[in-house]
Amino acid sequence: MRWLVLTxxxxxxxxxxxxxxxxxxxxxxxxxxxxxxxxxxxxxxxNENIDESNADLARDxxxxxxxxxxxxDSDEEVIEYLVNRYGEYVLLQPRANGVNLILWLAGPxxxxxxxxxxxxxxxRKPTATQNDAALSPEEQARLNAILKE
Length: 149
Fold this sequence. Notes:
By secondary structure, this protein is mainly alpha-helical. It is built from seven helices and no strands. It is elongated. Belongs to the CcmH/CycL/Ccl2/NrfF family.
């Protein structure tokens, strides 16, 4: 029974994509590599980070991160190296500057614009009292005649 429970626990645990031959000897560098890998997109799997992806390209990216860290690069230099090589799409959280700033601001700007258009439309909407003009004497007489019937 214990073997069955142990087997089920092992099968239910998440599979780690990082292979044993990728792991660095220095625990600090390995921790930095893992943290950086969590913020980098697998270009094959789309919205999965390279730390969890089993794709060959994700492995290459993990190895590149580790190589740069061993070479003495800072975290920012490693990220910049990968962005220069693969483009900003490699970042799971794109930067909010340059052309991306337009994308970051477009949603809130359209929401505010929509609220403004709705506010103007509601202000200009004619109310019931504005549409009702006083009846002429002929119309009043006709209305009274209709109501008496």
